[in-house]
Design goal:
This protein has about 220 residues and is mainly alpha-helical. The chain has a single domain, classed as Iron/manganese superoxide dismutase, C-terminal domain (minor pseudopilin epsh fold), CATH 3.55.40.20. It has seven helices and three strands. It has helices at about 5-25, 60-80, 90-95, 105-120, 130-140, 145-160, 210, and strands at about 165-170, 175-180, 195-200. Strands 2-1-3 form a three-stranded antiparallel beta sheet. The chain is globular. The chain starts with a helix and ends in a 6-residue tail after the last helix. About 30% of the residues are buried. The structure holds manganese (II) ion (MN). Manganese (II) ion (MN) binds near residues 116, 202 and 204.
Length: about 220
Amino acid sequence: MKQRDFLKSSILVTIALFTALIVNASEPQTKTATNPEGVVPAEFPALPYGYDALEPYIDARTMEIHYDKHHRAYYTNFVNAVKGTALEKTDLKEIFATISKQSDAVRNNGGGYYNHLIFWANLGKGSAAPSKELSEAINSAFGSFDKFKETFNTAAKTRFGSGWAWLVVTPDKKLAVGSTPNQDNPLMDVSVLKGEPLLTLDVWEHAYYLKYQNKRAD
Ligand code: MN
């Protein structure tokens, strides 16, 4: 493939993926296994689609390893970390609000368990504009939808090492974009970025390395 064509197709992939993310973020989420309210469930929640559902943007093998190895390990390690403690019956969001007082195992695995559920629920294939309400909020916060995409992509690309990019509703009810390191999230008391997650992007290398290698921006 010529360099120019490659760049063009990379941009299309980014736009398509981003549009897909927005579509799902703008739809009301029903209370399913991928809506992580409450305590940790007894069963590892199912992926809401097949491993190949996001081809060609995210390949099936990456999805399989990401969900069945990485995400499952966070879930299992989190279950084991809270087993027999008061946290076993504590709402995840309450745990995150006091995460500075919890063990590294609870912080890293609780975050890893929760963040991936938001990520899977956000992703989907297709394209459409965000809802009117979200669109107005985005324009008001970032100037335009394109400016928002640029801000979100920059947050994802510039997170040093492993972590997550986020669109959140802040405690004062405004939209904000930022990133968190490792498996932290904006619900944690240790996070600089604070708010209720709407949209997230996993920028750990395990999320893209098989297909895109070092090219996180792609
Ligand atoms: Mn991941």
